[in-house]
Amino acid sequence: MKKYILLFIAIAFLSGCDKDTYNNNNKYLPNYNFSIDIDTNLPLYTPLQFTANPVRISQAGIGINGIIVMNTGSGYTAFEASCPNQALSSCSGLTLDGINVVCNCDNVSYSLFTGLASTAVQYPLKPYRVQVVGQNMIRVYN
């Protein structure tokens, strides 16, 4: 009987886990599938070899308005380059500001380490998956 109770508790616990933290159900930002391999030996991406040097990638088909990738010192983060709390428009792009990005529509600042805003907002930055492939290759995908 105790085995069944433990099994029930384990199933209940595991079913409550969020299996897809990268699909944040943001009503402003659609989920587009993409994948990009980034070679950090290339001059455009060499800042990613060092901590706290974000790179914006605005290649067509990568994210909605591009992506922003940063080496955090313990790994990499990648976020959508669109304001997470604004409908897509001409002002909804993010501007790099050191280790933060700022939404051009409402001037809210977001950390590229955590994706969280400096003020209370509904949505954090939209994260993308990052996989280190080899010594100098990073794959970012949704």
Automatic annotation (TrEMBL):
Occurrences of domain Rieske (ranges) = 52-139
According to the lineage, what is the superkingdom?
A: Bacteria
Which spans of this chain does the record mark as coiled coil?
none
> Which PROSITE patterns does its entry note?
PROKAR_LIPOPROTEIN, RIESKE
What are the UniProt keywords, alphabetically? 2Fe-2S, Iron, Iron-sulfur, Metal-binding
Record keyword Endoplasmic reticulum present: no
KW Transmembrane (keyword) present: no
Q: Which InterPro entries match?
A: Rieske_2Fe-2S (IPR017941), Rieske_2Fe-2S_sf (IPR036922)
Q: What's the protein here called? A: Rieske domain-containing protein
Species of origin: Flavobacterium arundinis
Lineage per the UniProt record: Bacteria, Pseudomonadati, Bacteroidota, Flavobacteriia, Flavobacteriales
